[in-house]
DNA sequence: ATTTCTCAGGACAATTTGTATAGTGATCTA
DNA sequence: TAGATCACTATACAAATTGTCCTGAGAAAT
């Protein structure tokens, strides 16, 4: 069959059942395989197989504990755009990675810049962290902005819901 | 016979044992309470109590499934700084939240008003998503930069390790 | 027509969880 | 200083879950 779009498999990484399963686990992550099978109305072996496959494909990478940094005392989140010396990205990233308060670093288009998410206990603590970043060799310029609120917290749900709603075409 | 030495409880939200437990769960999230107690060398009841308390305090919010968006077909991540009309943040955020590809929104200090993380399947798909964002009422200006790489993926580990290393004092 | 997959359904032993209870040392309080 | 508390260890037991392995049916691919 000549076809750029298969019947049900091949190009669909996550099908409807997968999406429903992931959605279920998103809402109640502690559910066991057995309970999932009950909720989804399928056999336990099926759920088990689905999970295994998702892990195999690298879609599902695990169930890490979600920690609320705010509750841990790090009430401040800030984003920093870092300009660095040309060709020094690796070193700078290493330097940034050594700072515990640096929770995430991305290299972005623009001007070979880095985008950094940091947390801190207070404004003065943020000052300290920012100073640390500036002290990293080859960091040229740093522009920081503080997160005042987070209207949309990190989420994946809508993407899954779309898969669930629109089965493979 | 227990070798206790602890004495502080007041301002320490997460003590060393908590940190070790969370670190353990970070590395192997699927471990059960029993296994954790074995690894940590404490009684099962203790682990259970610690987990309960961490949840109670809001530090541990759950074990959501970690999904690799890349493996799901969303290989592109981009950050957008959005400038909006004064006093329209709520509406704009609602509009953004309605777009599945919008995975995170923060209101920030500084020039841009909102900071948005989006994912897309390809460059042209990103175009589509960006167009969607621009179409949200009251969005004035949008500046997007694509994430080329992620030298430091989202992490909390270092923060926990510091607690573990430096017991309350 | 035949092979290959996926999924439902069931079975079983071993392990884990949910709950309790009791004892001990240390800290807090009046 | 004498309780009262608190955190943790150590156990105990029933109920539920997990890890596996099998069988059979239906759909898709060859």
Automatic annotation (TrEMBL), chains A, B:
Q: Gene3D superfamilies attached here?
A: 3.30.70.920, Winged helix-like DNA-binding domain superfamily/Winged helix DNA-binding domain
Q: Which GO terms describe its molecular function?
A: sequence-specific DNA binding
- Does the record's keyword annotation contain Zinc? no
Example GO biological process:
response to amino acid
Source superkingdom: Bacteria
The entry's keywords? DNA-binding, Transcription, Transcription regulation
Annotated HTH asnC-type domain ranges read 14-75
- Cellular component GO terms, alphabetical: cytosol
Q: Which SMART domains match?
A: HTH_ASNC (SM00344)
Spell out the Pfam families in the cross-references: AsnC_trans_reg (PF01037), HTH_24 (PF13412)
| Protein name (record) | DNA-binding transcriptional regulator, Lrp family
Protein species of origin? Lentzea albida
């Amino acid at each position: 069959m000549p076809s750029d779009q298969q019947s049900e498999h091949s190009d669909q990484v996550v099908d409807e059942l997968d999406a429903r399963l992931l959605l279920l686990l998103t809402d109640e992550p502690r559910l066991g395989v057995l309970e999932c099978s009950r909720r989804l109305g399928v056999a336990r072996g099926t759920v088990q197989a689905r999970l295994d496959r998702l892990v195999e494909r690298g879609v599902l990478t695990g169930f890490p504990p979600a920690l609320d940094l705010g509750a841990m005392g790090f009430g401040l989140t800030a984003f920093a755009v870092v300009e660095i010396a040309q060709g020094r990205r690796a070193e700078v990233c290493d330097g940034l990675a050594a700072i515990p308060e640096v929770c995430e670093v991305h290299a972005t288009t623009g001007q070979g810049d880095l985008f950094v998410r940091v947390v801190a206990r207070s404004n003065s603590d943020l000052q300290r962290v920012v100073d640390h970043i500036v002290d990293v060799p080859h960091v040229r310029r740093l522009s920081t902005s503080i997160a005042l609120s987070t209207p949309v917290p990190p989420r994946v749900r809508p993407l899954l819901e779309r898969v669930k709603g629109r089965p493979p075409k």
